[in-house]
Design goal:
Length: about 160
């Protein structure tokens, strides 16, 4: 969709390999200060124009404002699992960073996406790598939490 570089931060090859197939140009496995520095190195010290924080935990949020460039945007698509987060002068305000996010507006994309899926242009099933019965939903969530599964689908 026009991005020249897409930096994916992740350590699990099942996720990062899929990310590369879907357009990631670089993968950064390091976390925290090391991960931030690696992204800054890849962007000539500037950071990323746009950061998608898709985890929802404080370390991911902190890493997000560490890799976003001044004047950039952080969009939280991971549901925040915290109430308080730095937004002051040292993290966001002083660098003119926009923080946005919210529940995905699925209805806005659904009418276009369904025909794309039916035509085979989009294969959303590629993220599912584990199937559980409805009685085993807890195990499906546990497998994702242990990073043994990218996404679990429930078979009825």
């Amino acid at each position: 969709m026009g991005a020249e570089r897409i930096i994916l931060m992740g350590r699990h090859t099942s996720r990062t390999d899929l990310g590369r197939e879907w357009g990631a140009t670089d993968v950064v496995a390091e976390r925290g200060a090391e991960g931030i520095q690696r992204v800054l190195d890849l962007t000539d010290g500037l950071g990323s124009h746009v950061v998608l924080e898709a985890v929802g935990h404080m370390p991911a949020y902190e890493q997000s404002y560490g890799v976003v460039r001044a004047g950039g945007v952080i969009s939280r698509v991971g549901v925040p699992q915290y109430e308080d987060a730095p937004v002051g002068f040292g993290s966001l305000f002083g660098r003119n960073i926009t923080l946005t996010g919210g529940p995905a507006p699925v209805r806005a994309y659904l009418e276009d996406a369904i025909p794309q899926v039916l035509r085979g242009e989009i294969d959303p099933g590629r993220v599912f790598d584990k199937t559980v019965a409805i009685d085993d939903i807890a195990e499906g969530y546990a497998a994702m939490d242990r990073r043994e599964s990218l996404k679990t689908i429930v078979a009825f």
